[in-house]
Amino acid sequence: GLERGAKNQFSTFSNFITTINQKKEGIGNRNSPTQLVIPNIKNVRDLPPICLDVRQKQRISIDTLPQELKAPIPPEPSLPIRTKTVKDFQDDVENAKSSGDWKAVHDFYSTTFDSFLEINAAFKKDTNSPFNTIEDSGINAKFVNVVYDALLNTPQDVQKSVLKGIINGLLQEWKGPRTKDDLRAYCILLQNPQFSNTSTYVIYAHLLRQIAALTEADHHFLVHWSKKISQKRFKQLVDRLLQFISLRLFPAKPEEFPPMVKCTWWIPSASKVLALFNAANSLNSPSIISYTDFYNSTLDHIDLMEEYHNWQCYGNSHRFSFCQYPFIISIAAKKVIIQRDSEQQMISIARQSLVDKVSRRQKPDMNMLFLNVKVRRTHLVSDSLDELARKRADLKKKLKVTFVGEAGLDMGGLTKEWFLLLIRQIFHPDYGMFTYHKDSHCHWFSSFKCDNYSEFRLVGALMGLAVYNSITLDIRFPPCCYKKLLSPPIVPCDHNTLVGICDVTLDDLFQIMPELAHGLSELLSYEGNVEEDFYSTFQVFQEEFGVIKSYNLKPNGDKIPVTNQNRKEYVQLYVDFLLNKSIYKQFAAFYYGFHSVCASYALLLLRPEEVEILVCGSPELDMSALQRSTQYEGYQKTDLTIRYFWDVVLGFSLDLQKKLLHFATGSDRVPVGGMADLNFKISKSETSTNWLPVAHTCFNQLCLPPYKNKKELKQKLIIGISNAEGFGLE
Q1: Where are the domains of the chain?
Q2: Is the predicted pLDDT of residue 27 greater than 80, yes or no?
Q3: What's the rounded Cα separation, in Å, for the pair 399 and 390?
Q4: What DSSP letter does each residue of 520-551 carry, written as one string?
Q5: Is 698 known to be catalytic?
Q6: H or E segment to which residue 403 belongs
Q7: N or C: which terminal CB in the chain sees fewer CB atoms within 10 Å?
Q8: What is the pLDDT averaged over residues 536-561?
Q9: What is the CATH architecture assignment of 339-486?
Q10: pLDDT tens digit sequence for 231-278
């Protein structure tokens, strides 16, 4: 978008202003446009504060407004009559291309973009209708798209006339609230493809500033109107805003822009407008584009901890931080924030332990700086539960695991295996804590009642420790679980406040129990008499240890029949019962376990999907990417043994590839940053080729003897990775 072809080159902003002030657009005899007044770019005022503080639950609150706002609607001024149609415009463009006479096209562009009234006169579907609702913006989207698609292929004077008109519109003095015509004009101007060019960024910045400073009620309309933009155009708008932020942070040619100190409002304005599009995307079901399309990878290269610190310290003030707009920050950047926040907490806790020890005149011990977990393989769950319960005050220290009776030293590998074995045992169906649903390939909490929910707290703590210690786990929870885990993202001070309760829908149930969800969906669409044909009440039944128990979905539910009129309520209450109420104690224990380790404001930055990626990593293995990023010690990547190795590995089944990854790294999941983040290394083992490969999971290192042929390498490698449990030193 930054390449400048012959037809879309612009001079610098100041040169452009000089040109349009001095030069008459010499195509025929026309009255010169209104004299252009240019703001003093070096003395622009700071934008009024527009930051949204996520700690106040205001990531974007526009969707919570009523659909029809009762604020007085200012009267719309009468619009000029413009009769040009899409066909007329296209004919004018074709004639101009063939004849070289662009007068008609130039007249259209210079008139249309000269003011907000003219923009509405050209692009409003019906100039006599107010279009004051959120359902319909009244914009002729097809005409807007055709006009903008043709713009970059017109002569320079045509393109400059559009920019000149936009400046005139932006400099208009506003008296009173904006009209819906003004909002329509903003919506149309945002789609101008000229704003992809850095030479137009000063104009673009002023447009963004005005949109950012609109009232919340006006933003409400813009959000809902933006939902109607096509996916392709919507993504172009988002990409343009992200590019604007990136190039303001790291300009390729700094001389193109005013000094940063004079335009501190540029990035806050763009972020606020981007938040409007993020809100529109979130309100749409399914979303228009992926939430990852809002990530700005440029932010990976700024001082993220300073941003996080500013947000923590000044979150309720007017000081800008990208953390106020977490949807812009990539999952890789959020992982860095969480890791460093965790490290700072670890150091702080360890330092406090050291100070306490010295103050009591006791000899310091290095072990006091770690969370030391000693377990027996034969009593893995009970030992782990006892250790974590006994050392609850040490959960935020660096984790070290020792298997009793084994000589392995934990440099990371033992910790990985402890997580893997513990998760495997806890989630086994015979253990009864979780139910595995074959249709959805995921686990869900067992609704069986018990006297002690401490083991659910252990699982939550395990997930927290995994995030805290940057370990990926092979846990298959549905997305709904992570939504509940962030409800709320910060543990409430009042212990009577319900936790782990979130709004759930039939879509959430489909991801866990698709067959049951399908049945409820059929009930909602049933065209017959629900009460007579189904004979159901607001009562549900569950089997617990062979005993059928009944539960009322509402008071006296067993006496209330399900009818065509109340079936939506029945379905909603049933879904809420299954995903919230029936497992409340189990999930509350799980929630408190997770947050006992991961309590951090950094969780406010995360979406449920991002928590899942941090906990589980990605199950998608790309062994070719691993090959490209692998380092070698004692081998060259062209050596015969290495070529044999990759021929064998790339030909493995997915199951064997996962076993290899688990053998070498202690986990069969891919971390957030992809295979490159594993820092995988293959070292030459000088032992006999009769030996099997050896792995140092602490360092993600595979020690490979120089096997003589591919068949021998494959045989020894499969034996090694298929029998890889336990640690020992000879």
Answers
A1: 86-294, 339-486, 617-723
A2: no
A3: 14
A4: HHHHHH--S-HHHHH--BSEEEEEETTEEEEE
A5: yes
A6: strand 398-403
A7: C
A8: 89
A9: Alpha-Beta Complex (3.90)
A10: 999 999 999 999 999 999 999 888 889 998 889 999 999 999 999 999
Phi, psi dihedral angles at 315 (to 5 degrees): -55, -35
- Residue 95, judged by CB atoms within 10 A of its CB (0-12, 13-18, 19+), counts as middle
pLDDT in tens, 355-398: 887 888 777 776 677 888 999 999 998 999 899 888 888 888 88
Tens digit of each residue's pLDDT (9 = 90 or more) over 47-66: 333 344 444 433 333 444 44
Give CA–CA dist 25/294, Å, rounded: 40
Q: Select which of 51, 323, 698, 703 is catalytic.
A: 698
Q: In this structure, are residues 145 and 229 in contact, taking their beta carbons and an 8 Å threshold?
A: no
Q: Give 617-723's CATH code, choosing from 3.30.2410.10, 3.90.79.10, 3.10.180.10, 3.30.565.10.
A: 3.30.2410.10
Helix, strand, coil percentages for the chain (3-state, nearest 5): 55, 5, 40
Q: Measure the CA–CA gap between 271 and 299, rounded to whole angstroms.
A: 13
In the sheet that 631-633 helps form, which strands lie side by side, from edge to edge? 631-633, 681-684, 701-704, 694-696
DSSP 8-state assignment for residue 618: B
Regarding pTM above 0.85, the answer is: no
Q: What is the mean pLDDT of residues 664-680?
A: 81
Which of 510, 528, 511, 527 is CA-nearest to residue 519? 510
CA atoms within 13 A on the CB side of 14: 7
Stated as kind and residue range, the H or E segment containing 401 is: strand 398-403
